């Protein structure tokens, strides 16, 4: 197994852990750390394109463009998962607020009829 394949396989459970625990502080912290690391990686690749070739060859990947493609694919998957979690969390908060408002309006209408 190539070194990058091993890293890729390890990234999937790590990504699942971060997405699953995103509502907790540790999930948000890890997501931010990975985001900053990806931004640094992107800046280095833009400034020093030969670096991607060097890293790719060290990881057993043929070309630097393939390394960029693989890392972008993992990032897009993580972004999709985090977006789904954030959407679900926002949906829960809206539902809770709607219930609270409905109960308050019901209590207010009960007080007016008495």
Give me the secondary-structure topology.
Elements (H helix, E strand, L loop, with lengths): L2 H18 L4 H23 L1 H10 L5 H50 L1
Helix pairs in contact: 1-2, 1-4, 2-3, 3-4
Keywords:
4 helices, mainly alpha, 114 residues
Secondary-structure element series: HHHH
Number of strands: 0
Helical stretch tally? 4
**Intertermini distance:** 76 Å
- Summarize the amount of helix as a percent range: over 70%
Structurally, the number of domains stands at: 1
The radius of gyration over CA amounts to 22 Å
Please describe what this structure looks like:
The chain has 114 residues and is mainly alpha-helical. It has one domain. It contains four helices and no strands. The protein has helices spanning 3-20, 25-47, 49-58, 64-113.
Care to give the gist of this entry?
With 114 residues, this protein is mainly α.
